[in-house]
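Most newcomers find our protein records easier to grasp once they have seen one. A learned vocabulary of local backbone shapes supplies the integers on the structure line. An example says more than a description, so a record of this kind follows:
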Amino acid sequence: MLTRSISLSTIGRNRLILIMTILLITIALIARAAAVTGARSRRIKSAPPARQNPATVQGQSTPERIEMESITLTPRGFEPSAIIRPPGAFYIAIDNRSGLQDELTFRLDLVDGRRLRESRLPEGHLEWRQLVDLPPGRYVVTEANHPDWVCFVTITAQ
């Protein structure tokens, strides 16, 4: 009888050790998951709250949609090399895929040479955006240090 009670208490002790081990592993995994999730949530910044146009909220008007003309700067120059569009405000968007990391200077001129805008793209930046509202006419976008890199912009009468 004594042998039987010893074996039952040994089995009970082994079972208790197994349960405690499983419990400790579970707690450790939960703590690790919480630490990883907490670190990840500190790295992700929340987006700023959306701003609403007061006129739109009151139902008085709808916001005007502004178009974008995308231009890619490659090692060979601007692509496309010409844009034709109707009058109205639009963004000129230049994406630097030329491989140059230097500061770039973009110029918007009338074809006759009169400068309208000059903007710098800081060293290491790859995107430049400029809101323009040009009257009908012919314009040229260039980069100051590469006069052969040209994109003609034509604004039609209508």
